[in-house]
């Protein structure tokens, strides 16, 4: 009979156990603390004299040794605590063995006595940080450090004690619940956690209780659910509550640790309060001239609820004249605003009584009947000085355009609506009648014509008439008066445009030359009808005739085909146009007909008679081209003559009165800043260094110098005039000097000159101390300068 699966599994486990027993190290452990049994080990085989079977039995016995050690958190204090003891079969008075420890916390948290095998905890242990440690023990030779037995693995577990209080990780809490909720209604749930071991003992078993918040709330001790404990909690009385919840471990028994948290409970609003008017009677005084749509008063019904539950709408449910007023709700202030819908008249009705109702937008939750309240509103109409009132807001008047001056066009009327009835005066607003075409009688409002009217210029005239109280000129009313100018037949018809017809020489008799229509500025009611005819002198016109097209237009026809430009180039055909007005008006208009040369298709090509007297083969374009060439040749000749004239003019402009006689002009350009050889400025400033000059080969400018009277010589016989002439001669004949335009600078005044320096920079005297009479003695070149300074002195004296 085959074995069952359970028996096969047992056999497999027994085989694995036998293998493990064979390989188990020969180290036994003795835990401290009484948590496991102590296993005793025997000596070595040589010492005990046991046979091989007994040795296997000893190994089998050690294989079932408890391989765990336990240590309580409270044992791990300042001094080392003995956790357990290791022992090997080789340790029979043998001093040549040593115990070693490896694994988690070996050497730091746990230490082993090398000789005895005692294991100690060196530091404080916390199960919440690490609950167990896996270590390995081995016996080695104390001299050679060679292992004597295979390593043995064991576990040290830290046993929990109640050293952690409960904590509310998510606290403090906030919760809300509707007001007036029933007893037992859940509000919220809180949760506390305990770091102690929930499996071992009651260290993590929590019980909840309420410390603060009674009698309004209660808490379930196991689920920590907070519930309503009091009936009729009203938000309008108190809106917020502070509830303190405690969580205690050890199942709530004595000695357990506890933690607390705060729960803020807010009562949310429900619509449990109706709106209420502050007063049962409201009184307002409203002036009778209050504009339509303006506010006449405000009412308000207070609601103890908040938000949507406090929103109310207002309505008028009763009153003397329900159409005179309306009430709307201000969404921001929750007020009822009373507004005017129709004009008020103190003289006809002096007071109104209305019944106003305020209703909640939301219904009361229990009954479904809306909350509402009513109040009475009394409105007293206050008398006001009102402006005059026209009988019509707008007047429409008509007048013929030929009406004589002072014709009465119409009248406007206005009255004072006040009870005392002031007299009214009428005026025309001249901003609307800038040309002053109309007048108005200030007493009765009759409008008369002040200037003639022309419908063809302005068909409508819109003026504004004002009515003013005599008693109070500030009370003014306005009305618009539209005056229509009626048409009369005062304009004769005329051609619609200035027609110019073209007649082909090769045209056929009866050919339409031009279609003519007329216009009339008048606008008769029955419409326009025009009659066309030739002037009496042209009734038997041999060249042209007219035909009525029955649409207020005519066609002009040619009578023959013998028209020639050489004979007559242009014809004038007068036509009389008459309208159908009363009386009829007519005008004579002339149609110009030009005879032209046309193609075979009747397309006009030329209407000029001169084209036929020109030579054959020479067109108008050729003549224009020839004329343009002639004009171009004339322009070239004029330019050439002008350039030759400018070229022959002398280079130097001679003028005896020109004070710029020291400037020499050339037609060539200067050398610029790099030209340093045009003249020697050092030589010009030192006249004694003249050793001669080199003649120049270019053309010398023809310069003339006026003799100057009153010349003075300096020391060594050097004269300024002579110095300048020498320098000028040198510059003119210097072949090394380039032929550039240059300015010769002569800053030398001569040695021993009585004139001295002309500069006032180094003089201590002022202009008033100078006498410039000596400038007149220097010659004609300084005469003008002397006259200028003499005039200045005479001006200061005067």
From TrEMBL:
The chain crosses the membrane at residues 12-32, 612-641. The keyword Repeat applies. One of its GO terms (biological process) is morphogenesis of an epithelium. Residues 88-168, 169-277, 278-390, 391-495, 495-617 form the Cadherin domain. One of its GO terms (molecular function) is calcium ion binding. Signal peptide: none annotated. PROSITE patterns: CADHERIN_1, CADHERIN_2. It is found in: Cell junction, Adherens junction; Cell membrane. CDD domains: Cadherin_repeat. GO terms for cellular component: adherens junction; axon terminus; catenin complex; synaptic cleft. It comes from the Eukaryota. Keywords: Calcium, Cell adhesion, Cell junction, Cell membrane, Glycoprotein, Membrane, Metal-binding, Repeat, Signal, Transmembrane, Transmembrane helix. SUPFAM superfamilies: Cadherin-like (SSF49313). It is a single-pass type I membrane protein. PANTHER family: CADHERIN-23 (PTHR24027), CADHERIN-8 (PTHR24027:SF273). Cadherins are calcium-dependent cell adhesion proteins. This is Cadherin 8.
